Structures are given as structure tokens and as C-alpha cells.
Amino acid sequence: MIGIYIGNTIGRRGGSADLSPTSPLWYGYELDEANSSPDVTRIAGAGKMAYHASLPVQSLMKGCIINDSGAVQYYLDPTDWSKKADGSASVLDGTDGQVMVEIPKFYHKIENPSSGVYRHKISLFPISGFTEIPKFYASPSEAQIQRSTLKLSSVRSLDADYRGGANNAALDAAINTDLGKPATSISLTNYRTYARNRGTKWNVLPYRQIMLIYDLFIIEFATLNSQKAVSGVLTIDGYKQGGLGNGVTTADGTEWGNFSGYNPFITCGASDTLANGSGEVSVVKTDFGGSGVNRTFTVPRFRGLENLFGHIWEWHDGASVYHQTAVEGGLHKFYTCDDPANFADGTAVNYDFRADLPLSGWIKDVTHDAKGIIIPKTVGANDVTNFCDYCYTPADAGGYWVALLRGGAASHGSTAGFVDLNTSCTASFADSSIGARLCYIP
Fold first, then answer.
1. What pLDDT digit, counting tens, does each position of 251-290 carry?
2. Quick check: helix, strand or coil at residue 355?
3. Buried residues in 138-161 as b, exposed as e (16+ CB within 10 A)
């Protein structure tokens, strides 16, 4: 595997930032809907652009091992996950606990100073008007399942007890083995149960949390386009540039179907050589295109989190869509729930209405929800403008509830991305190309 590394931290732009909590220590980006470019403008408190360049929130994202009670057993070496932070050997096979990425507590605010202009701000300090985002943990890869306990898991193991895909033991010695891969062919309803089998605070990664991660990506790279080419070069002012690359989105659909029946084919942890960093790692899949025809894919990584789009679709909990009948108005109503204890399928009870989704198309503008929940609002863009991602909303008005799929799959090319959404499947649906990500919310 060949990795391109674009770093875990970033140098400051000249001088040293004032770290006093009384200073306007926030940073973020400004998005103007009148501009079709996916690139956004970096902003910060007065005189604090150096603070932006230091990326204080993102720099606190770090790999760790936590037990089922949520206690951190140890942090991982920021540049080598085969080691603990103290330099001794780490154990990532589940023996010591779950491999997770810690997203620190921070504070978040969205402003709309003028028509079509939105400012997303974050800070490590409780500035007036900002909302606290509690610390949470996300699995660095799409989740596996410990088959003997039916617990949703985040480990690095080739053991049959964590066999992924559809759990096909007959393939254990084959080139398209399910060993070491994420689990798929499971409904959101069952994924939720398997997460809670680990404890009441374990979840399928909620939609709000993945959108907060997306916001951290946008702030760091100043682009909405998650598939923008990777660049290992900082700007003259010391900022990150580029994006996460195409990721595992370049597979030919027919080849993928023939190779693994649309089951996942990237091993969990394929980009772990980048540890807490961001970038991409090349992975060669033998015979993916047929006997003797190998294919190379790039596994993207953002601050320790890999395959945040592409490869397989991901279920996200805490969000539901109700497709109204024509009599009801024929709209597509997007709901979210803030309390994981109330996550449920096919109901508006304990859920809050957020916005109406547009019909299918390339996402142009979004609803900038005060909670940091980004929701498609209008379509009409393409793969190089605005959000560069696609929203799949069925045109039928059937009067039914669906769960939320996000990220796109390996054969989806440029339509895939952080906000590539699919609202056509009920929570009871299962498919070989659909998985989930584990989350712990203290």
C-alpha cells in the first residue's frame, strides 16, 4: 500500500495566536450561495487567522481504545497506530477495547448575516451564542460485528468472529474473502440493536455527528468538495488545500458485482498507516477486474477516519424522512432526533421537523440548521459546482417513512461524497453494499 500523507497538525501563519479565552478565538468559513464554486472563504475572529491555521479543534481528533463503558484505555501514537501514545505496542483486535477516533468537545455557531450568506464558526471556548458540541467517538472504519455476541464492533481483526460482508465462511480462503471487512446486509433496525448490545451509549453514527465531522473537514480544507484531489502542500499562508481525493468510488459496477457481489472489498484499517493524519492510501485488489486483472483504489482518510464516503453506503441513525402522499402535499419531510435514547424507525414522535428535501439531483444549496445538521435544499448543480454530491429522493408520493443512507458506494463515481444522500430505503432494508459506523456518545 502506498500512502499520501497530508499531516495531522498544521503550522501557524506567522506569529503566535493569543490563546486567552477572552479573545475572539473562533474560526470557520463563509459560504455565499451566489458563488457556484465549491470552495469557501476562511474566516476567524479579528486578528486570529493564525488561530485558524493552527486548527485547534481538528488537531485534538485522535485515535484511541475505549472499553464498553466508554473509558479510554489508552490513546494511540499519532503517527503509528501499531503503538500506544507511550510507545508500547497497541492491541487493535478487540482484546483491549474498541478502536475509535475521539472528536473533542467544541463550540459551534452558524450565522446568516445576509441573504444566501452563511458563516460556520467553531471554537474550543464557550463563546456567547455558540452551542456546545459534546465530545463523541466514531469508529475509524465502517463497523464490523462480533458474530458470537452480536455486538457492533470497531476492531482490526481477520478472525472469523468478526467476519464482515454477509458472513460467508465459504470465502475465508478466497481472494474476495469477507474476513477483515465491514459487516453489511443488515438493516438499520438491527444495526441499532447490535450497537446497543455493547451498551446504552453506543449507537450507529447519527446524522448530526457525521455532519459535524463534515463541517470540520470544510473548515480545514475550505471546500465543500470532499472528492477534491489530495494535496500534500500547504498554501503560502500555511493552510491545508485540496481534499480527500476520489476515494473508493472508481470501481466498475459490473466488476464489483462479479468480484464480491457488491459486498465490501476494502479491509478495515487499510489506511491505518496514516494514523491520526489525513490523505489517501493506494490498495491493489487482485483479480478485481477478472482473472489476472488487478485494480488499484485509493482509500481516503480524514483525521483518522477512513472511507467517510464511497466504498459502501452507510446507515445513519437519528434522522428519518417521511414521503408524503399527494393528498398530504407530496413533500419529503426531513426529521431528526437529538436524544439517542429516542432513536426509532418510522415515526415523528420525539423527532423534530428540519426541512423539506428536494427531488433527486446534484445538491446546489442546503439548509444550514443551527444544530450543524446540513440538509439538501435545492438541486441543479453538478459534480464540480456547489456541494458536488447527489441527493436521491424518490418522486413517488407513497406516504411512507424511510431511513437515511449517506456517502455513496464504490461504483458511484463523482456522485458520492460527504452529503451524497439516499432516502429510498426503509429501516428494515438490507443490502450487500450497505453498512454502518459505530459511535459512542458519553
1. 999 999 999 999 999 999 999 999 999 999 999 999 999 9
2. strand
3. bbbbbbbbbbeeebbbbbbbeeee
